[in-house]
Each structure stands twice: as structure tokens, then as C-alpha cells.
Design goal:
The complex is a heterotrimer of chains A (167), B (175) and C (184). Chain A is mostly helical. Chain A contains 10 helices and no strands. The model of chain A has no long low-confidence stretch (mean pLDDT 83). Chain B is 35% helix and 16% strand. Chain B has a 4-stranded parallel β-sheet with strand order 5-2-1-6. A two-stranded antiparallel ribbon of chain B has the order 3-4. In chain B, helix 2 crosses helix 5. Chain B starts with a helix and ends in a 12-residue tail after the last helix. The model of chain B has no long low-confidence stretch (mean pLDDT 91). In chain C, the strands form 2 sheets. Chain C has a 4-stranded mixed β-sheet, with helices on one face. A two-stranded parallel ribbon of chain C has the order 1-6. Chain C is rod-shaped, with a radius of gyration of 36 Å. The N and C termini of chain C lie far apart (80 Å). The mean pLDDT of chain C is 86. The chains are: A mainly alpha (167), B alpha/beta (175), C alpha/beta (184). Chains in contact: A-B, A-C, B-C. Chains A and C meet through helix 4, helix 6, helix 7 and helix 8 of A and helix 4 and helix 5 of C.
């Protein structure tokens, strides 16, 4: 936005009251009622607008992030996954796309997004859920560390590749 | 150029969903419905662009409140005039109009602004499973009800009862 | 402040000008100035010294030189290929400043000077085709009749039986029961 009034105020000789007022009134041209033309009301409205726009610059970042999260979660639900596992397991694959790009991919390149969702869901099923599936009674027997889970998933993969060994 | 315009039509096209409220809790049904009405199930969602879908609800007369909620839940209303206050228990409310319990639950879950009326116009409620054919012809997918439809013991066949996995073995009575 | 009182537009070029060949968008330049007035001095200098060179270098631009005493404040009126007309005030500018103004008009596209919303633009935002409601739907919905007993649209909650499968889980439970029976 270009504030021409301030330039003119510096340029003009004599009392600058006129240009000082023009500076505010130029910015209130689109306001409603007395907030547009009556200086004492307009100056308050314009200053409040500055405050709002300063606060809005910070708010906008959070709002946009919330919108991206919502869009990602909507897109990922079409592929049978939820937002949390999707984001977490993409990180485990070292795919470091941010939420803005992910939500953009979900809209404009849906087939790429489907591949990302499949990657994440595979990783998701390899983890803790695989161990839970082994013990459907609902408790994990023995000490469960990350190494145990890894060994378990490796064993499971071997079994699935060689069905004769399991039986 | 024209192909991109039709692409835009496809992206923003509305589709119709069906949901069966048979023996479902109204609140949880309303959660599922309100998300679809707002369009929050689409990656193109934006609060200012109207991207909600249509929802057809059948068997609303068969909704199931838990425990004593038919007696305990009370719908309050005030006309604004002196003495205009009224309170109706849920079972009476349901008898007056069997679609109203779901309608009110959904209405309360939608955003409280000018979009709400438009969204409510896309909600089609039917007390039983008789839906006009022109509406049913639009439906392209059915929403999974929030809980597995409960069945009474008498509604299971003998075969199902025999095959049901037993979690523990009843001991032999001693007498 | 990105407000609505000023017009805004997306970034665009004139028919991809300059990708294959470049077409100068400036068509006409009309110099309006006074023969005697002091504010027109720079314009008069420009016309005496530089305008012939400019005309030789840019044969596609038609030049009109219109001296008249009524033009106490001199200006150039530029007309572009897309029909826009733009006038630039030249009063009290010297010869070099007039020259920069003319060069600016020569290189402009004639599009309106408005706020540009984003510094990037593409006519084809999607390569694979943008998302639409039917993009990821299961294909057996095409022949499904409603109401159906197997609804497909649901919030995905990963439960244990989703991984194992409900039938497998029942088999597993039966095995556990058999083991318990044989043990007791």
C-alpha cells in the first residue's frame, strides 16, 4: 500500500493538519457510515484496523496450518488411514514434506498422495499393531522394547514370504 | 481450456450419501452427518467455499438413546413471550415427529452462521426406509453407522449361536 | 494491507510473449508539449537529440509529435496492442528522465498495473488431474444398490481386527479355548 499523503505532508509548506488527516481518511475510504468521513471516528477505526492486521499476521499462520491439517486428514481418510499415523510414519520413511505441500499434493496430484498414504500405512502395520495382532488377548507378554518389535516384524515378514516354514 | 472447466465441475460436484439410523445413537450419527454436510471429508475443504454434500438419513424413528435418556433428556424451548417456556422429554419429542431428534442434533453440531441453513437444506430425513425413488437414485455411497447394529438374543439363528466363540467355559453346576 | 478496495490479479503475460519470439506491445507514442513553456524543455531536448534514434531502433512504434501552446504540462500518450491507453506526465523532467520514461513504456505489456496476488502462476496446476469426489471411491459402488448391508464410507479407526481380520481372530480364540480345554 502506498501512502501518498505522508509524502505530500512533507512536501507542503505551512500547517500540515490537512495532510495528517488525509493520511487516515485515505485508509478509511471503504469503511461504513461515519467511520469513513468523520475524522475523530475514522482515526480510531483505522488504528484498530492496524492492530487487527498486526495480530492477524500471527493468527494467519496457525489458521493456515489448521486448514492444511484438516485437508490432509480428509484426504488420508479416503485411503483408510488417520492423520496421526500418516504424518508420523512419513517421517520414519524420511519423507520430509511439510503440511502445505502435502495438502497441495492431495488436491492437485492425488495419485502421488495415494502412494504416500500406502507407504505410511505399510509402516504403520509393521509397528506396534503387528505385535498386538499376535496377542489378541490384549496384553503384551514379556519386555517390549523397540528392538523386540523390530525382531518380531522381521520374523513375521520371513514367515509371510515362506509359508511352508510356518506350518 | 474447456476441459479444465469441466475438471472444475467434477472437483466441486456434490454427491449424495445414505445413512441408516437403525438402532444408532443420535449424537454419534449426527457427528458423522455434520462432517459430510460441512464438506470436511474433502481435501478441497475451505470454510468459505460451499463444498458440503447431501445426506439421506433413513429409519430415523428407530434411533436408540442409551439408558434412560428418552426420559432424562429434555428439549427446552422459549417463545419469547411471558409463559412461553416449554420443556419436552425426548420420548414425547420423538413421538411428535420421528425425524426431529436427529435434525436437532445435527443442527446443533453445524457452525452457527449463515452457512448452517444451506447445509440443513442438504439433509434429507426419513422416518422409515421408504425413500422417494428420485432421491434414492442420487445416492452414490452409504455411510457406515457409528456402531455395529445390536441384535437381541432372539434375532440370532441357532447356527450363529452355536458357532459364537466362547470366551470362557461355564463350569458344570454342582447340584 | 491486502484489502479489497484496490483491484488485484494473477500473474500473466501476453500470449507467452518472448517464449518463441518477442512482439513489442507498444504501438503508438504521442508527444504533447509546448514549444515555448519551460516545463517542456526536457521533452524538446529529447525530441531534438534522441527521438530519431529511437524511431530507427523501433520501427514498429508509430510516433506523433504534437507541439501546441495549450500543452503547458507536457505528456506522452502511449497506446498498446491490447488497446490500453496510458498517459505519462513529463513536466519539468530533463532529457534523460524523459528517455527512461519512453523506454519504460516501450518494454511494458500494456496490462493493467494492479496488485499481483501471488508471485507465481501456472495455467496447468495439475498433471495427474485434480482431485474429485469419485477419484478414490471403490469401483464396486458403480453397481451397488442402496440401502446396502455393507456400507463403505467410514472414519478409519485402526482396530486390532482390522489388522488381523475378524475371522482369523475368531479362529485364534477357538484355538486358545481348545488348549485350555485340553489342559484342564
Amino acid at each position: 500500500m502506498v501512502h501518498l499523503s505522508l509524502v505530500r505532508m512533507i512536501r507542503s509548506r505551512g500547517p500540515d493538519r490537512y495532510w495528517r488527516k488525509r493520511f487516515y481518511l485515505d485508509q478509511s475510504t471503504q469503511y461504513f457510515g461515519r467511520r469513513r468521513n468523520c475524522f475523530s471516528v475514522a482515526v480510531r477505526a483505522v488504528r484498530r484496523a492496524w492492530q487487527n492486521s498486526t495480530a492477524g499476521r500471527k493468527k494467519k499462520k496457525g489458521q493456515m496450518r489448521r486448514l492444511w491439517n484438516l485437508r490432509i486428514s480428509a484426504a488420508v481418510q479416503e485411503h483408510g488411514l488417520t492423520y496421526g499415523p500418516f504424518i508420523g510414519n512419513l517421517l520414519k520413511h524420511n519423507i520430509r514434506l511439510d503440511r502445505k505441500v502435502l495438502s497441495h499434493i492431495a488436491i492437485y496430484e492425488p495419485k502421488t498422495f495415494k502412494c504416500l498414504a500406502e507407504l505410511a500405512s505399510q509402516k504403520h502395520k509393521e509397528g506396534l499393531l503387528a505385535t498386538l495382532a499376535k496377542n489378541p488377548e490384549g496384553f503384551l507378554s514379556g519386555p517390549v522394547t523397540q528392538d523386540d518389535l523390530l525382531a518380531e516384524s522381521v520374523r513375521k515378514l520371513r514367515l509371510s514370504s515362506n509359508p511352508s516354514a510356518s506350518s | 481450456m474447456s476441459s479444465r472447466i469441466t475438471q472444475q465441475w467434477a472437483t466441486f460436484s456434490r454427491i449424495w450419501y445414505l445413512i441408516d439410523a437403525y438402532r444408532q445413537p443420535p449424537g454419534r450419527v449426527a457427528v458423522a452427518i455434520s462432517k459430510v454436510l460441512q464438506g470436511k471429508h474433502k481435501p478441497i475443504y475451505h470454510p468459505l467455499s460451499d463444498v458440503g454434500d447431501h445426506v439421506v438419513v433413513i429409519n430415523t424413528s428407530q434411533v436408540a438413546y442409551a439408558k434412560d435418556k428418552w426420559e432424562e433428556k429434555i428439549y427446552y424451548h422459549h417463545t419469547g413471550y411471558p409463559g412461553g417456556f416449554s420443556e419436552t422429554p425426548a420420548h414425547e419429542f420423538h413421538q411428535k415427529d420421528p425425524t426431529k431428534v436427529i435434525k436437532k442434533a445435527v443442527y446443533g453440531m453445524l457452525p452457527k452462521d449463515l452457512r448452517r441453513r444451506e447445509m440443513m437444506r442438504r439433509l434429507h430425513l426419513f422416518a422409515d426406509h421408504d425413500v422417494p425413488e428420485d432421491i434414492l437414485a442420487n445416492v452414490s455411497e452409504q455411510i457406515k453407522p457409528p456402531r455395529v447394529v445390536p441384535r437381541a438374543l432372539t434375532e440370532y439363528t441357532q447356527e450363529e449361536l452355536d458357532n459364537f466363540p466362547k470366551l470362557w467355559l461355564p463350569k458344570e453346576p454342582k447340584y | 494491507m491486502a484489502n479489497r478496495q484496490f483491484p488485484s490479479a494473477f500473474l500473466k503475460s501476453v500470449l507467452q510473449n518472448g517464449v518463441g519470439r518477442y512482439v513489442c506491445q507498444l504501438q503508438r507514442l504521442t508527444f504533447q508539449f509546448s514549444k515555448v513553456h519551460g516545463t517542456s524543455r526536457g521533452v524538446r531536448d529529447y525530441i531534438e537529440e534522441d527521438i530519431i534514434d529511437f524511431a530507427r531502433k523501433n520501427p514498429q512504434v508509430v510516433l506523433y509529435v504534437t507541439p501546441h501552446n495549450k500543452f503547458s504540462s507536457p505528456r506522452i500518450v502511449a497506446e498498446f496492442l491490447n488497446g490500453t491507453k496510458r498517459s505519462v506526465q513529463l513536466s519539468t523532467l530533463d532529457r534523460e528522465e524523459v528517455s527512461t520514461q519512453v523506454d519504460l513504456l516501450r518494454t511494458q505489456s500494456g496490462n493493467d498495473l494492479v496488485r499481483i496476488r501471488r508471485p507465481y502462476h501456472t495455467d496447468f496446476p495439475s498433471i495427474q488431474g485434480a482431485w474429485h469426489p469419485f477419484a478414490n471411491k471403490p469401483t464396486n459402488l458403480n453397481i451397488a444398490e442402496f440401502p446396502t448391508k455393507e456400507p463403505t464410507f467410514a472414519h478409519p479407526k485402526t482396530r486390532r481386527w482390522d489388522v488381523l481380520g475378524r475371522e482369523e481372530m475368531e479362529d485364534h480364540l477357538k484355538e486358545v479355548i481348545k488348549q485350555k480345554e485340553s489342559g484342564s
